[in-house]
Specification:
The chain is mainly beta. It has one helix spanning 35-51; strands at residues 2-10, 18-22, 31-34, 57-59, 64-66, 75-81, 84-90, 97-101, 117-126, 131-136, 148-156, 161-168, 176-181, 196-198, 215-217, 223-229, 243-246, 249-255, 258-261. It is 6% helix and 41% strand.
Length: 268
Amino acid sequence: MYFRKYFAGNTIGTLDEKQTNVKFGASSTAYTVYKNQTKILGNAIAETLRVAGMNAVYDEEKFILYPDEDEEFGIGVIKTALATHTFVVFDADTNSYSTTATSNGPSYQPFDASGETYKFYVTVIGDPQSLLRVHIGAYSSVTSTSYGFAIGVGKDIRNGRKVRFFAANPTLSTVAFLVRYADNCSLVNGITYSGTVSFSVAAVTGTAEYLMLIPAFATNGFIIMENAFLGCSSALITGSTSFYYINGEEYYYPTATLLLKCPTIPNL
């Protein structure tokens, strides 16, 4: 899947409309959030993810994006300043959290210098049932894919529990992800709040005649990604638009160690 949705308009209210003491998960760290711009950004992402086939919602009161409204895993999506936006990954267990902000400056933002108008695309690349990159365009370059995040889905094979992956500002080569249990946003057993799981197992060689579909797994050996396979270097070439049809099904090959099956059909 390679899909983007356009958003443009004027904000309601002014930059003075802020909400203080915003917290995420068990963390005591508080943020002051620009409410109007934050809600526009969060709802745009959620709307695009729904079109892409996800059951996503954005909680305007808590400023949390839930990729699946039936799960507790969430991502804080906030604007704490006009010239930056921030992603917050938290958990239900600890006072810890991880944040990543875009580069500071209006040229990287969906809003103009005054914060009163906006225009941007939300671009999604990959698949919600494996790994999906989500990029937020900028006012000065609406189709930009420089900033955003990646979300994925997998399983802890030790206990069968569903996990969610996250990486901020991903590139094609990003293969390491923060991980949380999907059902309650808790830490995965044996992995700290800031610890990542890496899908960097070397691609198989294969042959020019045969494509080897071997399920991908993280280097720790107990986390797998759904609809993901080891790359096959002899048969495929990686790239931002490296989509292939294999036995009548769509696959995406962004990086050598991950070949992603794309079974989801967008709700266009």
